[in-house]
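Key result, reporting period 2: structure in, sequence out.
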């Protein structure tokens, strides 16, 4: 039996990522654009980043959102997990809802931020972000396209 490309893809290590879905008092959620110099630069996503050794998802999320946005989050409520195979990596996205934070938003990586509801007006949206919009649609009884393009 030979090894197919698919088998090799399955063997790629999984990179754990903590992703924050910040929701404000009006039910809007925060999207940020990926900074220059990263893969998918300019694409809109939920803020977050990779876990460092020994970190829990919540710890990584608290660190990343402080580093990237200057805020300190309260509790991170685990929502859903998604596995995405990109050409550059195989990522496990640990999405958490966040309803409380303190501090003023600062775009420390010169990214942009945008509070959105459905349908999302910003584009392009990162492929790994699209399912989250669908989960919101299901939760909120929203029908129709969740985002442009
Ligand atoms: N933050 C975030 N990442 C996402 C989302 N959807 C999605 O597929 N990803 C992917 C893109 C990247 O492959 C990975 C996150 O890695 P990253 O490069 O942003 O993480 P990082 O800030 O730790 O980056 P670095 O230190 O390596 O520069 O997860 C999302 O909604 N938010």
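The corresponding designed sequence is given below.
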């Amino acid at each position: 039996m030979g090894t197919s490309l698919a088998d090799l893809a399955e063997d790629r290590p999984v990179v754990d990522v903590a992703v924050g879905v910040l929701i404000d008092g009006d039910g809007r959620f925060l999207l940020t654009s990926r900074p220059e110099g990263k893969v998918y630069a300019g694409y809109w996503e939920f803020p977050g980043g990779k876990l460092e050794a020994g970190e829990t998802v919540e710890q990584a999320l608290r660190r990343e959102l402080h580093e990237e946005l200057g805020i300190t989050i309260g509790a991170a409520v685990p929502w859903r997990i998604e596995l995405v195979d990109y050409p550059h990596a195989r990522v496990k996205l640990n999405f958490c809802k966040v309803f409380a934070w303190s501090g003023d938003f600062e775009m420390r990586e010169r990214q942009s931020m945008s509070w959105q509801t459905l349908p999302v007006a910003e584009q392009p949206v990162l492929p790994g972000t699209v399912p989250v919009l669908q989960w919101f649609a299901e939760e909120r009884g929203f029908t129709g396209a969740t985002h442009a393009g």
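The chain has a mean pLDDT of 93. Helices lie at 5-11, 57-69, 130-140. This case is discussed further under Risks and Mitigation.
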